[in-house]
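User: For documentation purposes, I need each entry recorded in a consistent format: the amino acid sequence on its own, followed directly by the corresponding structure tokens. There are two entries in this batch. Please keep commentary to a minimum and don't merge the entries.

Assistant: Recorded as requested. Entry 1:
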Amino acid sequence: TQGQPVSLTTACASGATSVQLGTEAIRRGDTDAALCIGTDGEICEEMVVRFNLLSALSTQNDDPQGASKPFSKGRDGFVMAEGSATLVLESYEAARARGAKILGVVRSAGERADTFHRTRSKPDGSAIIDCITRAMADAGMTPGDIDYINAHGTSTPENDKMEYLALSAALGDELANTPISSNKSMIGHTLSAAGAIEAAISLLTIQAGVMPPTINCNEQDPNILMDVVPNESRVQSVNTVMSNSFGFGGQNVCLIFSAEPA
């Protein structure tokens, strides 16, 4: 192994934190490239029991394919999944010099912990709000610059509510004009891997110009007033994506990606 290997856990924000740390190392000049990996494979009886005791898992076992329904009125918890994603981060100059295919640019990473509770977010959402506003400030962007949001969107009543609260505060009136969806509706919650997987999906969204849907969103929560992309993908040009990851223990990361400059 060359360079500075770092193993970390920030709960369900771990994959996004790896991208954050890789970005910061390149910005500091510590390295020209970083391999950022998020992975998780912990589906077993013990972990199912632990999450169930927290009332975090969906109990809609009669319809497992429809149980993960972020931002929906009838959501009652997440569906555990396993997965992994690896992203190669490079300085723009190094990537251009070797003729790499550039899928997008990491514009910023905002991070904030709230030290409130082992599993719950601080009720006023201040840490999540600060995380998002820091990311936009770091990117030199305003709310109107965000074309699409890849939500943390776990399908738990608490998390989806808190994400809406934070986005409403951070983006203001622009939130109503910003499409949002959660791929956890389709693949479940991959826990520590989720942030890296969603970073990859964010980059592919920019490349394809197709916003992935939030499936099972047949009746949106009337208290969550966002432009949730429901059930079918939406074809639309996307230049800039915000990707949110919020982990247990109040560990919050917001990443912003943009298309390669013309």
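Entry 2:
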Amino acid sequence: MTVHIIKLCVGAEGVDSLIDWQNSARSRGPDGLPRHVTRMTPKRAAEVLDGGSLYWVFKGQVLARQRILRLDEVVGEDGIKRCGFVFDPEIIRTEPAPRRPFQGWRYLNPEDAPRDLPQQRKGDDDLPQGMAEALAEFGLH
């Protein structure tokens, strides 16, 4: 059974900012794929790798996801083992979904994951943050 991951996208203003970051060489692993290194390795790795995605939270709203291709062990300069989430380069925009702040990452069940936006709605993340939140709260966005 598939399970997803949800994580705050710290340092990015929105989806376009994440795209810019991942297009830079600094965000890529040795294989050229985008990755994010985190301290904890998912114990449910098999479920994550069974079609799971990482859902990105920007300023209190889930706005995008990326399919997780693999989980690499990464050893830092300090000798500590960490987990490298390796992503499909395609960032898929989702319907905005409010999320409270949290630390690290969390599991996200498929039934709780926001739906992908249809192609014609890809620019919706350009709405002012307050407006996107209000629309999502009323189920209109």
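Summary note for entry 2:
Residues 4-137 form one domain.
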